[in-house]
Amino acid sequence: MRAPSEVPAEGRAKLAIDYAMAQVGDAYVYGAAGPSAFDCSGLTMMAWAQAGVALPHSSSAQFSTGTRISESQLQPGDLVFYYSPISHVAMYIGNGLIVHAANPGAGVRVDALHSMPYVGAVRPG
């Protein structure tokens, strides 16, 4: 899926999105948090760190931080979670798209919001 050239966001969310989008094409490595390889929660943790928001390096732990929001409330920068039990996290970038460290074969990329079994979302900060 083609990454959008511009993601509409402001403030801290823009800082986090800009970082995550700059990593598209990087490798997926389990347990990695940059600078050239990431796992799913490592990418979201490091992206939000650019905005001064500390997140744990675990998708299920990240689901327990911030404010839970409904899918209809999603804004760029929000974290979205997948599978039951939760085992994957991505960042919403608007227009039904996410950026995430997908898996070892795909790396960091842009996909559709519902490309995996959606569980819920959190607004960090």
Question: Any descriptors?
Answer:
125 residues; alpha+beta; six-stranded antiparallel sheet; two-stranded parallel ribbon; 8 strands; globular
What would your notes on this structure say?
22% of the residues lie in helices and 27% in strands. With 125 residues, it is an alpha+beta fold. The chain has one domain: endopeptidase domain like (from Nostoc punctiforme) (endopeptidase fold (from Nostoc punctiforme)). The strands form two sheets. The protein has a six-stranded antiparallel beta sheet with strand order 3-8-4-5-6-7. A two-stranded parallel sheet has the order 1-2. The longest helix is centred in the N-terminal third of the chain and has 12 residues, at 11-22. The radius of gyration is 12 Å and the shape is globular. The N and C termini lie far apart (29 Å).
Question: What's the topology here?
Answer:
Blueprint: H1 11-22, E1 27-28, E2 37-38, H2 40-49, H3 59-63, E3 67-69, E4 79-82, E5 88-94, E6 97-101, E7 108-112, E8 118-123
Helix pairs in contact: 1-2
